[in-house]
Specification:
- This protein has one domain: Beta-Lactamase, CATH 3.30.450.
- The protein has 200 residues and is α+β, with helices and mostly antiparallel strands.
- It contains six helices and seven strands, in the order H-H-E-H-H-E-H-E-E-H-E-E-E.
- It starts with a helix and ends in an 8-residue tail after the last strand.
- The chain is rod-shaped, with a radius of gyration of 26 Å.
- Helix 2 packs parallel to helix 5 and helix 3 packs across helix 4.
Length: 200
Amino acid sequence: MTLAKEQKMRPGGRAQQYLDHYLQGSGTPMPFSVRTLLNEDPGVRGCIFREVNAGIMTAEVRKQGSVGLTGSVAVKQFYFQNIDWQYATGALNVQWQCMGEEVRNGTRVLLVDVWCQNLYRWHPGAGRATDCVHRAAVNLQAPQPETRLVLQPVHVPGAPSYAQSWFRTETTNYQKAKDFLMVAPRERILVPRTSGKAMS
């Protein structure tokens, strides 16, 4: 886990912060912002914008009102372009609700509330190249004490050299890692409207 953090995660980045929180084992929720994620990751932004517009268009075809319409977007890891965000959160399920529509700077936009709550956890056995890292992370939820022999030099006057040292044991107990909730409170974003009809 230390090697994965040092070699693959941006120093001081969100992924390192989330991993450290997991390893500390408090299990307390970690807040984040979907709006910030969308600002920093164009792949995730495009995914959510497309899904929201698709939901609106489907509602209009069915002659349903769009204001108040809700949905959920499964943001798979392959949508991420910002690796720090991808390693921090993994796949997400983002909830949305359309609150209205207006024109801003000559562009029609949807007023959409977004929020999210997902569990930070590792998934061994998913058939990926990094399975050993996922397995190590899960194993740290029930860590075994590490015991090792340490050479302890002792000066005994007149004793032969082989009697000048002895071994003692040292045991290291590791903190238990714990899954935690990643919580993004409800906040308003603007989604450029791609469908042709006015909202009902």
